[in-house]
Design a protein that fits this description.
It is a single chain. Helix content is 0%, strand content 34%. It is mostly beta strands. It has one domain: Sandwich (Immunoglobulin-like), CATH 2.60.40. The strands form 2 sheets. Strands 1, 2, 5, 6, 7, 8, 9, 10 and 11 form a 9-stranded antiparallel sheet that branches. A two-stranded antiparallel ribbon has the order 3-4. A hairpin with a 3-residue loop joins strand 3 and strand 4.
């Protein structure tokens, strides 16, 4: 297991919704890792020091962060794309304002990929790290506030080193 952490029991659920802007016309432009009626949507093992989780939506091939967190039952550290009305106390993000290059907000997350990655605590990369314990393709035609399940992500990279 990567980092000495076993991800075999990791699971996740999420909804599409935009609670931070009060506009009911763009509900497919946000992702929140919650289970309804209102409970944590992620069951993840504790990471060792120096590592954090980060949520992502891959929109038209562009990875866009939802924020970094260590506790799935608390808000993450980012709300730079959200509206000003505050969101649930769980990881997630509304994609309403300040879109990064290559993406337009608000957006429609159907057909996007939702990812939970494991990241070094000190990390300036705009892309997910190689460890992705949970991944989901958002189904076309899915409605807002319908609970979706994150599946197991790709196998963690492995390797060996030979010292000569």
């Amino acid at each position: 297991a990567a980092l000495g952490t076993d991800f075999t029991g990791a699971s996740g659920r999420y909804i599409l919704g935009t609670p931070t802007d009060g506009d009911g016309n763009n509900e497919l432009s946000g992702v929140w890792f919650i289970d309804l009626p209102l409970a944590p949507g992620l069951d993840l093992p504790q990471l060792p020091a120096g590592w954090v989780y980060e949520g992502w939506a891959v929109i038209d091939g562009v990875p866009v962060t939802t924020g970094r967190f260590t506790d799935a039952a608390a808000a993450d550290d980012f709300d730079g794309f959200s509206g000003d009305q505050g969101g649930p106390a769980f990881p997630g993000e509304d994609f309403i304002h300040n879109a990064p290059d290559g993406v337009d907000f608000p957006t429609d997350l159907t057909n996007a990929t939702i990812v939970i990655s494991v990241e070094p605590e000190v990390d300036d990369s705009p892309a997910p790290f190689a460890l992705k314990p949970l991944v989901s393709e958002v189904a076309d035609g899915i409605g807002d506030h319908q609970v979706q399940t994150l599946g197991t992500g790709p196998a963690a990279p492995t390797g060996t080193a030979t010292l000569g």
